[in-house]
Design the sequence.
DNA sequence: TTGTAAGCGTTATCAC
DNA sequence: GTGATAACGCTTACAA
């Protein structure tokens, strides 16, 4: 006997023991038709008050729970939104998820979560699954999907989509990103104010739009030697490796901008291993202010922002897009500089 | 015109422009009945190879995507699991979610996520929603739901449920928790080895089983003055507040166990504000080893564990419970002591 | 090996 | 105001 059959049998056994009330049961008990029962429960206007009460009462006594499945099949609306990220366990995406979930819940939507594990193929598979589930909308932080891939998969379904953090230029009904340009400029300017001339960058993944934008702005703002720009992914380990390279260099840079908190942590580990003191011998600033940023030694000078706001804004755009046809909109979440000690400030 | 009607109209417009292939379309194109088409696509055995090929081909050319909704309605299986936590953005739950998601995906299940925001009422609402969606199973970390509440809501549905971290004694088909008892004993013993006699505890929420267990074991292992035991929630702010109280006390304790990383961070902030040096003037150890634990000043002596393992194990138990009737099982995830400097070790 | 037909639990349409 | 009835898109007895 196959798994499916086993499960099926089990369901039926349970069903017999705990019969679940259906709309028909409610209608029967209230002495009306299922259509009337449906209308009563959905707050339809033109209905005799007495009828409505009878139905509501029947529903309550039978502990009636409408089947979201059946309703969705009929109405073509699932009130479910697909959420796709490269890694839910990363603080950034976790916070964005939280923000989005809260907003969506307020508008009556549920979240179906897919973790793509930094893999574009799995991202694609995730989208397929979500579309098969007829989600009403999509919230995506892509790890680098090609525009054509996205359009072939999703656009033909015309499922409203909003990107955040990892975006595809011009795709979808909206995009929410951090103000990467301003953030990098704040950091560069601050280091320059401290008198630094040889500034390096731990750039972060160049397959993600956030990494690309930060690098681009850095190049615009700083005339750095190519070897001061370290292309890498986002992990602590990447930061450590790049940090060692940077610290071995000669003439070496005097300051570095880390494109993420993890990269900064890795850099700090490398510096500690080599006995290089921060900020005395080497200054460090970060794009991203982790919540323990002022408890590190030294405390981190960083560009901070409201992470859950990213999710909230994305959710807002999506809700609009799902409820009516709207113009594509791009939103930037503001960032601010938080001065602490790793840059050389007194703290 | 109501929102629902607007959405409905929009759907219909889209539907006309981008007709989606249904099983009937596939069947027609392949020149067979829908039943045969269904069987072909589901890998049913007794079928002429030629027929199968024709159907598969038709499905491919029409870019057929089966409707998960319709299938679920018919089979009473959604292959969806509900995941309920007090706060997804917390590193612990985010990691657990990641682990669970990965395992569930391997078994073909999707995750529907609900964040209860530390609120038992919202937890309950979340469960209702998930049950309305006919989820096949439930993974819950409760912030303190009463057993009767849970049973009234879920048990009658007989939806397999596995608890993790925040559990309800004896409820559900399984429970996965950290080895809180062993963790606290490791920390206590280590402090005692350092010669401490007045040991305090930042206990964590007593509405969650993790907090309760840690406090209970602490009481068994340490004969502490009542004022050395600080009942609080889990936030950094709680840790700071309790930290100040502890440091004002006289005679004051010489060491403290923080029940979570956040509480430890709060304590460190309080100590820093008062100029109390750790570990020289006051030792600190933590239940929970944050990933930046060795980059703090001082680095944290902590009880560590594999967080995503919690989610994975819970998912494993749940998958078993969904596929056959099984005994209730309780699993403990092992913990280990990580010696660093906040306790007074040399590091 | 394949087709017919019933039905999963709702809601939209069209009568009355 | 309310009720019949036909979908929504699929799976599965049962029949052929």
Sequence:
């Amino acid at each position: 006997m196959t798994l499916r059959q086993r499960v099926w049998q089990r369901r039926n056994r349970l069903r017999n023991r705990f019969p679940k009330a259906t709309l028909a049961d409610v209608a029967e008990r209230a002495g009306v038709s299922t259509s009337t029962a449906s209308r009563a429960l959905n707050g339809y206007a033109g209905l005799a008050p007495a009828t409505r009460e009878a139905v509501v009462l029947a529903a309550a006594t039978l502990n009636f729970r409408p089947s979201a499945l059946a309703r969705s099949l009929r109405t073509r609306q699932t009130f479910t939104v697909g959420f796709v990220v490269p890694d839910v366990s990363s603080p950034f995406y976790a916070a964005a998820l939280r923000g989005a979930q809260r907003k969506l819940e307020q508008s009556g939507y549920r979240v179906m979560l897919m973790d793509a594990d930094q893999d574009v193929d799995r991202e694609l598979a995730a989208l397929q699954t979500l579309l098969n589930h007829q989600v009403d909308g999509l919230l995506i932080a892509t790890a680098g999907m090609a525009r054509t891939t996205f359009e072939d998969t999703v656009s033909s379904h015309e499922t409203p989509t909003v990107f955040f953090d990892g975006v595809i230029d011009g795709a979808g009904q909206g995009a929410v990103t951090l103000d990467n340009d301003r953030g990098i400029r704040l950091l560069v300017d601050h280091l320059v104010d401290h008198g630094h001339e040889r500034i390096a960058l731990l750039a972060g993944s160049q397959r993600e739009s956030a990494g690309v934008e930060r690098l681009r702005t850095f190049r615009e703002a700083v005339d750095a030697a190519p070897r001061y720009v370290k292309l890498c992914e986002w992990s602590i380990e990447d930061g450590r490796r790049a940090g060692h390279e940077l610290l071995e260099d000669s003439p070496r840079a005097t300051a570095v901008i880390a494109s993420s908190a993890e990269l900064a942590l890795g850099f700090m580990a490398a510096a500690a291993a080599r006995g290089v003191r921060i900020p005395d011998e080497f200054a460090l600033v970060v794009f991203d202010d982790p919540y323990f940023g002022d408890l590190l030694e030294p405390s981190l000078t960083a560009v901070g922002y409201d992470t859950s706001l990213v999710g909230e804004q994305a959710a807002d755009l999506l809700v609009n897009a799902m409820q009516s046809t709207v113009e594509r909109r791009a939103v930037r979440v503001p960032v601010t500089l938080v001065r602490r000690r790793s840059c050389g400030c007194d703290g």
